[in-house]
Design brief:
The chain has 466 residues and is mostly helical. The radius of gyration is 23 Å and the shape is globular. Helix 4 crosses helix 7 (177-199). Helix content is 41%, strand content 1%. A hairpin with a 7-residue loop joins strand 1 (442-444) and strand 2. The chain binds flavin-adenine dinucleotide. Flavin-adenine dinucleotide binds at residues 125, 134-138, 141-142, 182, 185-186, 188-189, 192, 281-282, 285-286, 289, 307, 311, 313-315, 318-319, 322-323, 326, 466.
């Protein structure tokens, strides 16, 4: 959003290590961005002669040929080497069905402004299902179809009551909570880039940006589950190849993680969504990264590389910087924050809609309080109606299907599924007294079966988490 020459420090080494400190140094964000560059009148001419392409590569001549060349790896192996890849669940729609290009990017921006989605953004941004809970501008930004300045100025005009969106809430009323929150997130994007510039290759270091301090910290992730060739630094090539390097204990765990078969439903729903659509929400990403690094105790870079391979909005700084942050080796002042995916599901998927959308095997799990069951037909397979009350204890079975009653597992045909019979991790959690004292917990310990929750939950993501 802000220009690299407009930073409040002379040298990149002076970039604050804490986002909030940096943010305060550049606020008010609404005053930050420079004018957008004008649209060029013409493109620079092509070079007079294009050398012929040497085999085996071919330059496609049409858009269709280009698309099929790009998609060839998917067509050749859409399983990505997974023995049990997910397939598209009936009735579920992608949260990211957009096509690329500048025109599509401008249309999306225009839709967000004129539909009021920008104004509502602060309240909806933690959603996981649907088209408009967040802007879905990341891929356009990262590919270069759109700039953060263009987003800022479109919102600015809206706030000033100029241009489109006159029927949307917030038009002409200066900065709204929603537009301010979008600027806040775009500043995270700037900050991740600046961190990359400051720390260079440490972006890929298992010990993160603060590698020297972190090496001394026994609580932080280690690279013992990777062989030396992988644990040195950085990453290489698509995941399918690097699975060959994983040791015998790690490989089956990581494979089940990738395929969405861990047994923690929020994580599995997100990873299946990712593999099928190339997108998953920020809320889900935070949970997935925390699950891999803290609950499974794996090297966070495995997850970062899997994301790099699949994300439609992949961006080197945002991806690796966020993975570091959640894994507790990045620039998070609250190092080692850990998300409880059961509590997070209860908070952000309180009707189980997201889990049911991507884990069709669980659509028959009964959620409605017993007094409603049987009285209104089998509503559970379609969701929960407005008048029905959800039993939170039953929701816990949806979020961790190993904990469902045996007879329900048999009835739903769940017996024999690895992720139901043998979850990679069982997360202790109980519902205590109608929404309070839900056993909020901080995960202690690393690796399978060694953790336990205690105290209040860290990582609710409501503080300064991106
Ligand atoms: C483990 C993990 C991996 C991630 N990998 C990527 C990645 O490869 N590419 C990527 O663009 N984002 C990444 N993010 C950040 C964030 O999840 C996505 O930018 C966001 O979900 C994209 O959807 P959106 O455009 O609807 O976001 P919105 O919520 O609408 O946010 C608006 C814009 O702000 C920026 N933004 C939002 N959240 C963040 C954040 N946490 N860090 C930096 N910028 C942010 C993005 O440019 C986004 O388009 C990652 C987050 C996590 C936790």
């Amino acid at each position: 959003m802000s220009h690299s020459r407009d930073q409040p420090f002379n040298h990149i080494s002076d970039l604050p290590n804490i986002f909030t400190t940096y943010r305060k140094s550049v606020e008010p964000l609404r005053n930050c961005p420079r004018e957008s560059q004008p649209r060029p009148n013409q493109l620079p001419p092509l070079p007079p002669e294009l050398p012929p392409q040497a085999g085996p590569f071919m330059i496609p001549n049409t858009l269709e040929d280009l698309k099929s060349a790009l998609l060839k790896p998917f067509a050749d192996d859409s399983s990505f080497g997974l023995p049990e890849p997910p397939s598209w669940p009936a009735g579920t729609l992608s949260a990211h069905p957009f096509t690329g290009g500048e025109t599509a990017a401008q249309e999306r921006l225009s839709h967000l402004i004129s539909s009021g989605a920008m104004t509502r953004y602060k309240a909806t941004r933690n959603g996981m299902l649907g088209l408009d809970f967040s802007t879905k501008l990341s891929a356009y930004l990262n590919i270069g179809n759109l700039t953060a300045r263009q987003i800022h100025w479109a919102m600015f005009n809206f706030e000033e009551g100029r241009g489109e969106g006159e029927n949307a809430e917030g038009y002409g009323r200066a900065e709204t909570e929603g537009t301010a929150a979008v600027r806040f997130e775009l500043l995270w994007r700037d900050y991740m880039r600046l961190c990359t510039r400051k720390y260079g290759n440490k972006l890929f270091d298992v010990h993160g940006f603060r590698s020297r301090e972190n090496e001394q910290n026994p609580k932080l992730p280690n690279s013992t589950n990777l062989p030396a060739s992988q644990s040195q630094n950085t990453t290489s090539g698509p995941s399918k190849k690097h699975w060959a390097y994983l040791d015998q204990n790690t490989r089956p765990i990581f494979t089940r993680f990738c395929a969405g078969r861990t047994g923690a439903s929020l994580i599995d729903a997100s990873n299946r969504e990712l593999i099928l659509t190339g997108y998953t929400s920020n809320r889900a990403r935070q949970n997935v990264a925390s699950f891999l690094s803290s609950h499974l105790g794996l090297d966070w870079r495995l997850g970062a590389e899997w994301y790099e391979f699949l994300l439609i909005d992949y961006d080197v700084s945002n991806n690796w910087g966020n993975w570091q942050y959640v894994a507790g080796v990045g620039n998070d002042p609250r190092l080692g924050r850990t998300f409880n995916p059961v509590k997070q599901a209860l908070d952000y998927d309180p009707k189980g809609e997201y889990v049911r959308a991507w884990l069709p095997e669980l659509r028959g799990v009964k959620l409605v309080k017993d007094k409603f069951n049987g009285s209104k037909g089998d509503k559970d397979t379609k969701g929960v109606s407005e008048t029905e009350e959800i039993d939170e204890n039953k929701l816990l079975g949806l979020y961790q299907p190993w904990s469902l009653p045996e007879e329900e597992k048999v009835k739903l045909g769940l017996k024999g599924l690895d992720w139901v019979d043998k979850p990679l991790v069982k997360i202790p959690f109980s519902v205590g007294g109608r929404g309070r004292g839900r056993g909020n917990g901080e995960w202690r310990g690393r690796g399978r079966g060694r953790g336990r929750f205690r105290g209040r939950a860290k990582g609710s993501g409501r503080g300064t988490a991106p």
